[in-house]
Amino acid sequence: MMNEIYRFGISADTVHKLTNQVAEEISLEEITPTSQELSKIIEDISEENYRRPVLVFSADGAMVPIRTEEKGQPHHWREAKGIRGYLLDKDKIVHLLSWHQISNVTEFRGFLAQLRDKDIIPLNKVRLCFVGDGADWIWDCVKEYFPTCRQVLDYFHCSEHLHDFAKHQFTGSKKADEWIEQTKVRLFHNNASYIIAGLNRMKCKTATAETERTKLVNYLKKNQKRIDYGRLRRGGYPLGSGAIESANKFISNIRLKRSGAWWKVDYANNILKLRCAKYNSKFDSFFEEYEQNTKEQRASRPKRIRRVK
Question: Which is the CATH superfamily of the domain at 11-153+241-289?
Fold first, then answer.
């Protein structure tokens, strides 16, 4: 496309280098909304509502293909951790920010610290909520950086754990379905303690069922305060993490998981930065600032005077 526009040859290598050069300048702070922008969005949503809107953060990871540079070592997969923030406006969501990077837990903590330190969230105007799938690293980060927010365990992940136990405990699918539906009703009536007690009294038919029961009991105990689904639904809070799953798909998976593609970590992260800037509607403003900074740097360089013979 660039060759057709400018009518001279630009090699793929040059485009590759320029893309990474631009993307390396992008930071989380530059592609998140300002406090003024966020306040304006909140005011527009709150105008006809009798209660404060819900500001939701959700985090998850997506495995992406990574190239191994060492000879004799196979390529492998690493997790791109992502976080998405959005506002709930009745039956729709208002996207605020997405940030995805191949990173470890320490680096992900740094992203949350940046969000907190930027101080863009007017806590007196929103009800803060964090939705997760039960991974320990997510809740540990939330407790450290957003300790006062409402924590919600993703309903569909919780349902999967119920199914995993039921298929080993009950011989017929009808009995399994009945038990699952009854358990879900108890979850929506905030009776997690009764579910745990019933599981402990239940006689398991096989060793596998007993193992799955132990896993389920531990899972429910660990997340007991995050599964008051009836109360959460009445309060207008989300019950699922579909928003971050969608962000993983459209930002990470569609671009990085292409046939035969294996990425260097730095290059993959640079592409993710560009895509986050695009989905946050911040790419144009960032690129204008990048161009202006480049012009200023060129202007500040000492001029070279050539002697003409």
Answer: ATPase, nucleotide binding domain (3.30.420.40)
Parallel/antiparallel/unpaired status of strands 54-66 and 150-153: unpaired
Q: Which of 134, 164, 145 is nearest to 241 (CA)?
A: 134
Query: Across the beta sheet with 150-153, what order do the strands follow?
Result: 92-102, 76-89, 54-66, 127-132, 150-153
Chain centroid offset of residue 270 CA: 17
The two structure tokens encoding residue 151 = 């924590």
CB–CB of 212/164 below 8 Å?
A: yes
- How would DSSP label each residue in 156-198? HHHHHHHHHHHHHH-SSHHHHHHHHHHHHHHHHTT-HHHHHHH
Among 103, 79, 78, smallest CA distance to 28 is for 103
- The rounded Cα 285 to chain-centroid distance in angstroms is 23
| pLDDT band at residue 309 under the 50/70/90 scheme | low
Which two structure tokens, joined as six digits, stand for 44? Answer: 């527009």
Termini Cα distance of the chain: 41
Each residue's pLDDT tens digit, 6-59: 777 778 888 888 889 999 999 998 999 988 999 999 998 888 788 899 999 999
For 207-238, what is each residue's pLDDT tens digit? Answer: 999 999 999 999 999 999 999 899 999 999 99
Q: How many C-alpha atoms does 248 have within 13 Å on its Cβ side?
A: 18
Polymer length in residues for the chain: 309
With cut-offs at 50, 70 and 90, classify the pLDDT of residue 3: confident
For residues 228 and 209, what is the distance between their CA atoms, to the nearest angstrom? 26
Burial class (CB in 10 A: 0-12, 13-18, 19+), 297: exposed
Residue boundaries of the structural domains of the chain: 11-153+241-289, 155-239
Closest-CA residue to 56 (of 132, 119, 114, 141): 132
